[in-house]
Design goal:
Elements lengths: L6 E7 L4 E8 L3 E10 L6 E7 L6 E5 L4 H16 L4 E8 L10 E2 L2 H10 L7 H14 L5 E5 L9 H4 L19 H15 L7 E7 L3 E7 L2 E5 L21 H10 L3 H10 L2 H6 L5 H7 L4 H25 L4 E5 H6 L1 H8 L11 H5 L13 E4 L4 H13 L8
Parallel strand pairs: 1-6, 6-8, 9-12, 12-13
Antiparallel strand pairs: 1-2, 2-3, 3-4, 4-5, 7-8, 9-10, 10-11
Helix pairs in contact: 1-3, 2-3, 5-14, 9-10, 10-12
Length: 402
């Protein structure tokens, strides 16, 4: 591979998985392959790869008791595939940048130390993400690594939006609304400008990233002015297994009635709530839509999700002083026409009118010609955004639109 076409690996670590993609960066970014190591911590962890070349396609059982061992299996495969010298850089999605990191940066030993100090901000994600960067550093000590912070898009929220109504002394400790899904939102704003014209992006836009994790962002002039997630990704709308916003008094109530400690409460609101908790059967919206006519619990879970998303759209329209564009993205947002229809039903007062056939077909534009608000369905691509960011930070090219 010539220096003119560097290879960028993107790493997106989850609680039990590592998603990755490999891009060639020339005049523009070209995705060569993508895949994941799934079921980390379980006996039958799996490495899955899908590439442009048939030779890259594989499904392989791997030993992955933790993220460090799992990423070692990935690095072994990459060396087996192309040789260690092929990689030019690695970009990591880092969920939380805390109060310090507002821009993507090349990883240094000092930054890793700071991320360790930030771990209490996001104990569900940051420790594993740090382990992944350290594993690459040990195997490839000269390989540049770039941290792409998922909170960066929201870093400059208006003060009134980022303040939390708790004693002021906690603000000095960095306790504030941070917001997440920033890589997705940055990509979507770029896509909106590309598809609808540069004059559309500066308008009043609500972005709804609805997937296993779900959040919304109110955007004006391409900048985030409010977002549903807060200090942690647990806040906002109900998600697959996360509760979204709750009455904080529940902590004290459950402590008294069930002797529930902080760790148990955190486990409940992050892994046992949301769609799973209400339905008692599944965290997957597809399953719930399939069952809702014969299972009242599934129907209630779907209804609660749609209702809460609708409320946030109304609130953000108020914060923006109106609405020009509504964007649905994420696994649910991109692929669940009934959910989009139910969310938009009753929002006619905002100027939203869905085109039934276009919505059913998951078309890119699903609003009618008479709709005052353009309602769009866009495919988000966090991996492409990470790769593009790496190119920009390291000056590698590949900065053209994908």
């Amino acid at each position: 591979m010539s220096p003119a076409n560097p290879l960028i690996l993107t790493i997106n670590g989850g609680s039990s998985s590592i998603k990755f993609a490999l891009f060639e960066a020339g005049d523009s970014l070209r995705r060569i392959l993508e895949g994941a190591i799934e079921r980390i911590g379980l006996p039958e962890a799996t490495l899955r790869v899908k590439g442009l070349n048939q030779a890259d396609n594989l499904v392989r059982l791997v030993t992955a008791p933790d993220h460090t061992v799992a990423v070692g299996a990935l690095m072994d495969w990459l060396e087996e595939r192309r040789g260690r010298e092929a990689l030019t850089a690695v970009g990591h999605r880092v969920v939380h940048g805390g109060p310090k990191y507002s821009q993507p940066q090349r990883l240094t030993a000092e930054m890793v130390e700071e991320l360790h100090r930030l771990s209490p901000f996001d104990p569900e994600h940051l420790p594993e993400e740090i382990l992944l960067t350290e594993a690459f550093q040990r195997r490839f000590p000269d390989l540049p690594q770039v941290a792409c912070f998922d909170t960066a898009f929201h870093h400059d929220l208006p003060r009134v939006a980022r303040l939390l109504p708790i004693p002021r002394r906690y603000e000095a400790q960095g306790v504030r609304r941070y917001g997440f899904h920033g890589l997705s939102y940055a990509f979507l704003i770029g896509e909106l400008a590309r598809l609808a014209g540069a004059e559309t992006a500066p308008g009043r836009v609500i972005l709804a990233h609805l997937g296993n994790g779900a959040s919304l962002a109110a955007v004006r002039d391409g900048k985030s002015v409010d977002t549903s997630m807060s200090f942690t990704p647990t806040a906002g709308v109900p998600m697959s297994t996360r509760s979204g916003d709750l009455d904080p008094g529940l902590v004290w109530y459950l402590a008294r009635t069930e002797n529930m400690g902080a760790r148990q409460f955190n486990e409940m609101v992050n892994f046992q709530s949301g769609l799973l908790g209400v339905s008692e059967t599944s965290s997957d919206m597809r399953d719930l839509l399939d069952r809702e006519t014969r299972d009242a619990r599934a129907a209630e879970a779907v209804a609660l999700f749609c209702y809460q998303v609708k409320k946030w759209i109304g609130a953000f329209a108020a914060a923006l002083g109106g609405l020009d564009t509504l964007v649905f993205a994420g696994g649910i947002g991109e692929n669940a026409p009934p959910v989009r229809a139910r969310i938009c039903a009753g929002l006619e007062f905002l100027g939203i009118a869905l085109a039934e056939k276009q919505n059913a077909a998951n078309a890119g534009l699903i609003s009618t010609n008479a709709s005052r608000v353009a309602v769009r369905v866009l495919h988000t691509d966090e991996e492409w955004m990470i790769a593009q960011t790496v190119c920009r930070v390291l000056g590698l090219g590949g900065n053209k639109e994908n």
